[in-house]
Amino acid sequence: MDVANVFVSLGVKDHAAGCDWWSKVLGRGPDRSPMPSCCEWDLTDSVLLQVLDNPKEGAVDTVSLRLPDLEGEIKRLCAAGIAVGEPQAVPGFTTLRIATLTDPDGNTLNLLGGQ
């Protein structure tokens, strides 16, 4: 199997609100809207995040992003009015910490920092 892209898809009840929330979290609007029910961001060259007007049908409910500056991103999100949980140590790792937040539909976003 030769995989060119990985799509992480989140179903939401209110598409406009979901796209707005994820735009705030990612610090930019979507890279494209390939159809009216989908907004899409390129997270890396091969990983794409899709917010779909398709609540809980065939969608995942957790996205985890490893960040080079966890504290800086938490400050930015809090300044944008997005509640972020206090970072916690991840057992079994030297410095890895996790902070968790949820979108308006209850999808989980884990922010990871460290090793």
Provide an overview of this structure.
- The protein has one domain: Roll (2,3-Dihydroxybiphenyl 1,2-Dioxygenase, domain 1), CATH 3.10.180.10.
- The chain has 2 helices and 8 strands, in the order E-H-E-E-E-E-H-E-E-E.
- The strands form 2 sheets. The protein has a 4-stranded mixed β-sheet. It has a 4-stranded mixed β-sheet with strand order 5-8-7-6, covered by helices on one side.
List keywords for this structure.
single chain; 115 residues; alpha/beta; 2,3-Dihydroxybiphenyl 1,2-Dioxygenase, domain 1; 4-stranded mixed sheet; 2 helices; 19% helix
Short description:
The protein is of the alpha/beta class. It has helices at 15-26, 70-79; strands spanning 6-11, 32-35, 38-42, 47-52, 62-66, 88-89, 97-102, 108-113.
Draw up the topology in text.
Layout: E1 6-11, H1 15-26, E2 32-35, E3 38-42, E4 47-52, E5 62-66, H2 70-79, E6 88-89, E7 97-102, E8 108-113
Parallel strand pairs: 1-4, 5-8
Antiparallel strand pairs: 2-3, 3-4, 6-7, 7-8
